[in-house]
Design goal:
Number of strands: 12
Organism: Pseudomonas idahonensis
Largest sheet: 8 strands, mixed
Order of helices and strands: EHEHEEEEHEHEEEEHEHHHHHHH
EC number: 1.1.1.169
Strand content: 15-25%
Number of helices: 12
Enzyme class: oxidoreductase
CATH superfamily of the largest domain: NAD(P)-binding Rossmann-like Domain
CATH architecture of the largest domain: 3-Layer(aba) Sandwich
InterPro entries: 6-PGluconate_DH-like_C_sf (IPR008927), 6PGD_dom2 (IPR013328), ApbA (IPR003710), Ketopantoate_reductase (IPR050838), KPA_reductase (IPR013752), KPR_N (IPR013332), NAD(P)-bd_dom_sf (IPR036291)
Shape: globular
CATH class of the largest domain: Alpha Beta
Number of domains: 2
Radius of gyration: 19 Å
Protein name: 2-dehydropantoate 2-reductase
Length: 305
Amino acid sequence: MNISILGAGAMGSLFGGLLAESGQKVRLLDIDERHLEAIRRQGLRLETDSSDRRIDGLAACRPEQAPGHADLLLVFTKTLHTEPALRSAAGHIGAQTLVLTLQNGLGNAEAVSRHVARERVLIGMTNWPADLLGPGHVRSHGEGVVRVLGLEGGASRGASQVAQVLDGAGLQCRVDRDVWTSIWEKVAFNAALNSLCAASGCTVGQLGAAPEGVALARHMVLEVLAVARAAGVAVDEQRCLDSVAFAMANHRDHKPSMLQDVLAGRATEIGAINGEVLARARQAGIAVPHTETLLGLLRLIEARM
């Protein structure tokens, strides 16, 4: 396929690199000129558990410079940049282009469908780990999965084709009719760890080392999953709590992306995570005091920056 990655940070570059290695034609679209130039000049350096290598043959440019139309556009931008990024890439989205969002949080499908016909929008979730170490240099240790589905809810031909392509790149992808379960459980995971670490300055391990951190994370998970159930989504409370506990025990030095944004003075994705959960909670008449308090704290931190 002719695949473009909109938002070639850590995750976008990981996916782009692995897809290129599997034989797909890949173009990375981003506005970080240093990252793009490093990839054009010397390829993408990709560190995984299997090896440390350079991947050549990746095209890299700004979204508005992308030629022709992509068969598949993977959206990995931060949620607050989704709409301007899609506007920039509008000339690269043709009448047959499939658009898959694997972004964090809620509201992404609605944002994409304002720019692309709903029947060509795919939604999904991934928990692959990735870190951007510098221009043209990405590291991913451990493994993950990808779950996708057509926005209209069916296992469409497009979703099946995309799942096959991603799976062929080693990304462990399948079509999942219960993808909203995966999306909401990841929102609960991120609401617990991202917002708490961003507000406290703690790494994941430091959060887990304090009884207060463990208790707050549990409250966050339970509040988010209550909102998911009110929306008719079946979620597994114990599975989500186990995922948080595993991260605290095994990813002790990890700084979640929201904490990295705070440390760098950037706007965060708190609106797409805690903010969207709060909005849906209010519609359902559910109290989510911990979620709301952390949203307020992160808004204060952003305002200070």
